Amino acid sequence: METIIQTPLAEALENAISYQEYRTLVADLVAEGKSTGPEQTDALLNYSTLNDRRMKRLDKTMKLSEETVSVVEDFKGDVTWLVLTESWCGDAAQTMPAMQKLAGLTDKIDFKVVLRDENLELMDQYLTNGGRSIPKLIAIDNATDEVVGTWGPRPTKATKLVNDFKEAHGKLTPEFKQDLQVWYNKDKGQDTITDLLELLK
Q: Which Pfam families does the protein's record reference (predicted)?
């Protein structure tokens, strides 16, 4: 019998869960005082707890414009959006609800989630500036199984804020990270939505 060597992407797709399952997983872990991933620390638990609340809020409050809705409803492709993430990641908590909102408008986008630290081989094919930055969205054409685009770890404007700060100060400070979350709160997912609509073009 011939054995088919599975690529990291195929393997991840096979083991991926839905957004709803991911939300349940995170909420259950937080209730047990845990985060996703092999490393368990108070800091990671704190971030995960915060992110669980953030996602709950954004799932309820994020709004889509009529224009956005019609762009997604007119989408002619058939894709899977596979996202690498972990519960402690602040950028993921701010952007995944936007992915879910868009995917929820059409059956032509299948939104799936995998944990980064269980899929490092795949993660290492999609590094950002050499780092395992998450969330990382991989868009796959379901007809050809080809990767047709990627996105992440942050929307365009947030990426610019981060890059400008790093250039000026060498690295990101805890204060800057707080400022970034404030920016996300004001933006309410709109910059992420703009970026993701580009992926559908």
A: Thioredoxin_9
